[in-house]
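Entry:
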Amino acid sequence: MRVNSINSNVNFQAVNQKYLQRAQKEYKQIGCITNHLQFCLVSDVVLFKNMPIQDGIDTLKAIKNLVKNSDACIDKDIELLTKLLRK
């Protein structure tokens, strides 16, 4: 998976473009981000280790920033990955 650095005034460093583009597409088409997208992202970080934990956190923060009215699920996933990062 390709992870790109982004320049922004928010405090995340690297965002997985695959998931960010999927989130943008979903948000544009249906007006929200599906739980399936979040599940796949967290699974890639936790189960399959295809992405560093910090990159997963940064990607979720970027998705949350994209979606103005995000639900608590994104916050819970960010909290989960942050706890894993601290271990």
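The helical segments are 17-30, 35-46, 53-66, 72-86.
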